[in-house]
Specification:
Length: 656
């Protein structure tokens, strides 16, 4: 059917005179004139509608990135009511500069959504204002952050750029400001505000008990969840100090202390060298790509010593620094924030202090500046005698934010030789850094060439950087042997944290990981890191252990080998050579309530009943092997650790 539309100029002039409006009106010839207000006019004169539509589109983008099911019609009901509350308040209170307030609110909520997207891509969790308080640390890893940014993420700021451009056009800016002077009907604003508030409360209140933060954010809506975390201010219910003891911890863990522990004191009086390897995951062990070993030196260590294949990270926001904390204290990371920020002021029981009572000298080696993640304060709280940081290693041959692994090992070996010449044994923690996300190392350090399908992928760059780190490690091992330190030392090597987050990989990269594993890459694989223990006792034979372990277990394991009893030191780990059962609570990279048992990884949902189960073997078997009792005990362990640290005295106060 053909409709003839006639532009009515007279009507337009009348409308302009009467209403100062500039929009054309069309009439249907031969029948009746129908006034059709264009969407452009409606949006330009109703800012609450214009900006709400923009925020809805941005919310859909965030949901596409974060939630498995993506956005749906419920996204409208979960995100827009919060937006409307903000805009209704502007309509109610702003009599002047209303456009400015709309722009500020728009940019603020946009930035929250953008931060949520980027943080999820890096950590796999929903960022809150507690984590954003550490945003100053992001500048040091800006390359990692930028590498995770898909170009379409920037679309979230498109409207901001366009509006700023229009604002610099004087005529357009005046026109916009005049159109925004139109004040919404007060009754309409109050009614819309009331309905929006009720819907927000309906989204938030029933879902407060959800354990999984991602599930909670999806149930509440992202903006509602962010507001909830600010105003909920839920205090931790700490256990009284007189109820915290090693016996209590062992009871919750169901740990049985053997009468005659295996391998006890087999490394007594020897040096201790702890090698913490940046981003090293367990799948690297024995990995070959078309005949090329990715980590030949690590593979040799695994074959010739004690190797734990079911060993897992227990870090949080502080990543590498959190690994340092957990390994040296056998305590869990705090419920929020990095351990170095939250716990560094405490008088912490630690491995350096334990070994000092047995005559050990201690030092830690890290090529970054000691101020990063507040390490200087942590080292004092832990009790290291000395630390070596960027000032010691210099700026020669730097990669990312510190000297390369070659330079780390080259300068560290000289210090270890000097320490070894003393009468007393030493404890040295050496932290590698070159294989750091996003793994774009200099060309001269790219020592292998992978097949073309790995080019320009995070997976390919990761393996190339780990190959370099392994090469530098091999050189360090040879130097230790040549200088007579190797045979006189207990060597512990482990990964500090994951290197390839599932949520950072695109479809092609996930296919590459599936090729490596011959199955889907899972969360269990993601947090699985290697542990190798080199015992100088010649009677200790090479072996591969199936025992489940985590970074919290290193202190008691090492203490047993060195013959340093932990009778008077509270610890949450266990000796891996003398236990067959373990339970490992997880925080941060996995939802609250997640833990590992001896057979699987459990990831919480709203609680235990709707949680997910991931077998350690990665065989895809969905049969549950964890129990609700284990779930409750994992949460109790975390609370006991939080409570124990809370009751510790502050070392700064004690010094005064």
């Amino acid at each position: 059917m053909k409709v003839d539309l006639q532009y009515d100029y007279n009507y337009r002039k009348k409308a302009q005179a009467a209403h100062s409006e500039r929009w054309p009106v069309f009439a249907v010839k031969g029948r009746v004139k129908v006034s059709i207000i264009s969407s452009k006019r409606l949006l330009s004169t109703r800012p609450i509608l214009f900006f709400s539509l923009i925020m809805l589109l941005k919310s859909y983008l965030a949901w596409m990135v974060i939630f498995e099911g993506g956005p749906s019609w419920t996204t409208l009901l979960k995100e827009i009511p919060f937006v409307l509350i903000v805009y209704c308040l502007i309509e109610w209170f702003a009599s002047k500069r209303k456009l400015l307030y709309y722009l500020i609110a728009n940019v603020t909520m946009t930035s929250i959504l953008f931060a949520v997207i980027m943080y999820y891509k890096y950590y796999g969790v929903i960022v809150t204002y507690f984590a954003l308080a550490q945003v100053n640390q992001v500048t040091a890893v800006k390359n990692s952050v930028f590498s995770l940014m898909d170009p379409y993420f920037l679309f979230i700021y498109t409207d901001v750029v366009v509006l700023m451009f229009l604002m610099f056009r004087k005529n357009r800016a005046v026109e916009w400001k005049n159109s925004f002077k139109r004040k919404e009907n007060t009754r309409f604003v109050v009614g819309l505000l009331t309905v929006s508030l009720v819907i927000c409360l309906f989204n938030v209140l029933p879902n407060r008990a959800s354990m999984n933060e991602i599930v909670k954010a999806e149930q509440m809506g992202i903006l509602n969840y962010e507001a909830y975390t600010i105003f909920s201010n839920k205090e931790i219910e700490y256990v009284d100090s007189d109820q915290i003891s090693q016996e209590k911890i062992n009871s919750v863990k169901k740990t049985q202390t053997p009468a005659e522990p295996l391998l006890q004191a087999t490394a007594k009086g020897k040096n201790l060298i702890v090698l913490q390897m940046e981003s090293m995951q367990n799948f690297l062990v024995g990995l070959e790509i078309e005949g090329q070993e990715i980590t030949p030196n690590l593979n040799k260590l695994v074959k010739e010593n004690s190797y734990f294949k079911h060993f897992y990270q227990q870090v949080g926001q502080g990543n590498t620094s959190d690994a340092e904390f957990v390994v040296n204290t056998s305590l869990y990371i705090p419920p929020r924030g990095a351990a170095t920020q939250m716990y560094a002021g405490k008088e912490l029981p630690s491995l350096p202090k334990l070994l000092k009572s047995h005559g050990y000298d201690s030092a830690t080696f890290h090529t970054n500046v000691v101020e990063f993640w507040n390490r200087g304060e942590l080292y004092k709280a832990i009790g290291f005698d000395r630390f070596y940081d960027a000032e010691f290693f210099g700026e020669e041959d730097t990669v990312f934010f510190g000297a390369s692994d070659d330079m780390l090992y080259k300068k560290t070996i000289d210090e270890l030789e000097r320490m070894d010449q003393n009468d007393n044994p030493f404890y040295a923690q050496v932290i590698s850094m070159t294989a750091h996300h996003p793994y774009t190392i200099p060309d001269e350090k790219r020592l292998i060439t992978l097949p073309e399908r790995f080019n320009n992928t995070l997976v390919g760059d990761y393996m190339v950087s780990q190959n370099y780190a392994d090469h530098a490690l091999g050189t360090f091992i040879e130097d230790l042997k040549a200088r007579g330190i190797w045979d006189n030392s207990l060597i512990v090597l482990y990964g500090d944290h994951l290197g390839l987050p599932i949520y950072s990989l695109d479809r092609h990269e996930k296919d590459l990981m599936a090729e490596i594993y011959s199955r889907e890459y899972t969360y269990t694989d993601m947090i699985n890191i290697p542990l190798v223990i080199v015992n100088p006792d010649k009677n200790v034979q090479p072996a591969q252990y199936d025992q489940l372990g985590g970074q919290v277990d290193l202190l008691p394991t090492v203490a047993n080998l060195l013959g340093a009893p932990l009778d008077d030191q509270v610890h949450f780990g266990q000796d891996l050579f003398n236990q067959t059962y373990n339970i490992l609570p997880q925080r941060y990279y996995l939802p609250s309530g997640s833990f590992l048992s001896s057979q699987e990884l459990f990831m919480s949902g709203s609680g235990f009943e709707d949680g997910r189960h991931y077998p350690l073997a990665g065989d895809g078997n969905d049969e549950s092997k964890t129990t609700e009792d284990e779930f409750d005990r994992a949460l109790e362990l975390l609370n006991l650790s939080d409570s124990f640290v809370n009751h510790l005295p502050n070392w700064k106060t004690e010094q005064k």
